[in-house]
Each structure stands twice: as structure tokens, then as C-alpha cells.
Amino acid sequence: MKTLEIIYWLRLALGITAALICIGYGLATGTISNTKFTFNTFMNGISMALVTYLMSYYIIKFKFMHKVEKPQKLLTTGIGIYFISWLVFWVLLYTIIAAA
Q1: Cα–Cα distance for residue pair 51/63, rounded to 1 Å
Q2: pTM (predicted TM-score)
Q3: Which of 58, 63, 70, 74 is the most buried (most CB within 10 A)?
Q4: Residue 15: is it exposed, middle or buried by C-beta count within 10 angstroms (0-12/13-18/19+)?
Q5: What is the distance of C-alpha 73 from the center of its chain?
Q6: Rg (Cα) of the chain, in Å, rounded?
Q7: 72 phi and psi, to 5 degrees?
Q8: What is the pLDDT of residues 21-80, one digit of tens each?
Q9: Are 79 and 15 in contact (CB under 8 A)?
């Protein structure tokens, strides 16, 4: 596989992992409840997803900097799949846990 393909699939896996981290944080702090969904819950999740993405950028940059033509590609490759996979899995897991 090419380097950018590896980064793309890595970002997909990180999106799913970030959703699991957000749900775990919600369960640990007690912000996930079956009574109502608040805007604060969503903002906690999105901020954790952004922090996870930024941390992954610096790790990927350190590892793959010399293997790509444009270093800017390290930031933009897989950004869409990361946030879409995070959102889908976060909503799916939140719905399952809140309904229980």
C-alpha cells in the first residue's frame, strides 16, 4: 500500500477509536443519560474527537514526514473519513447506551 492509503485507513480506525473514547468518557462522567440529549454532551464529544485528530496528526507527521511529497497531505488525508466514522459510531453507540 502507498503511504497516503495507509494514513487514510489509519484515520478510519482512529475515528472509530475516538468514538469509543468519547463514549467511555461520557459513561465515566455520567453525561450519557436516557432522559435527554444536551448540547454539552455533543460538544464534549466533538472536542475530544478534535483533540484525538490533532494528536494523530503529530504522530503521523513524525512517522511519515519523509515518505510523502507534500507534508500538507499528512493533515488533509483522511479528514473526511475520520469525522464521518467518528460521528456514525458515536451516534450508534450513544443511542445503544442511552436506550439501555
Answers
A1: 19
A2: 0.87
A3: 74
A4: buried
A5: 18
A6: 15
A7: -65, -30
A8: 999 988 888 887 776 777 888 888 899 999 999 999 999 999 988 888 888 888 899 999
A9: no
Q: Hey, what amino acid is at 46?
A: I
Can you say whether residue 35 is alpha, beta or left, with left for phi > 0 and alpha for psi between -120 and 50 degrees? alpha
User: The dihedral of CA 58, 63, 66, 71: what is its sign?
Assistant: negative
Residue with cell 450519557: 32
Does residue 32 contact residue 23 with C-beta atoms inside 8 Å? yes
Residue with cell 490533532: 54
